Amino acid sequence: MQQDFKELIQILLEIDNPADMECFLEEILTPSEKKDVILRWKLLKMVHSGMPQRQIASNLRISLCKITRGSKILKNPDSTCKRFLDRGLSEDTK
C-alpha cells in the first residue's frame, strides 16, 4: 500500500496544469471522497484563520473531534498544511 501511495504522489507531481489536476481528481475520487477532502481543507482553513472550534463545528455541521484533529495538524511545527496556509495560498476562508 505504501508503494502505491508513493506512486500516486509521483503522478500528482507530474501533473502540471489545473485542468489536468481537476480531471485526474474527479476520475479517482468518488463524490463522497471529494466532499470529505474539501471539508477537511475547509476546516483547516477555518482553524488557521482563528475561528473558534465551536463555530466551525456549527458552520460545517461536523464534530469537535474532526476539528481537534485539524487543530493538531496545524500545531505541528512541521505541518505542510500549515506552511501552505501561512503562505496565503487560500484566502477565502471567511
From TrEMBL:
The keyword Transport does not apply. Gene3D superfamilies: TrpR-like (1.10.1270.10). One of its GO terms (cellular component) is cytoplasm. Its main location: cytoplasm. GO terms for molecular function: DNA-binding transcription factor activity; sequence-specific DNA binding. SUPFAM superfamilies: TrpR-like. InterPro entries: Trp_repress (IPR000831), Trp_repress_bac (IPR013335), Trp_repressor/repl_initiator (IPR010921), TrpR-like_sf (IPR038116). It is found in: Cytoplasm. Keywords: Cytoplasm, DNA-binding, Repressor, Transcription, Transcription regulation. Pfam families: Trp_repressor. Belongs to the TrpR family. PANTHER family: TRP OPERON REPRESSOR. This is Trp operon repressor.
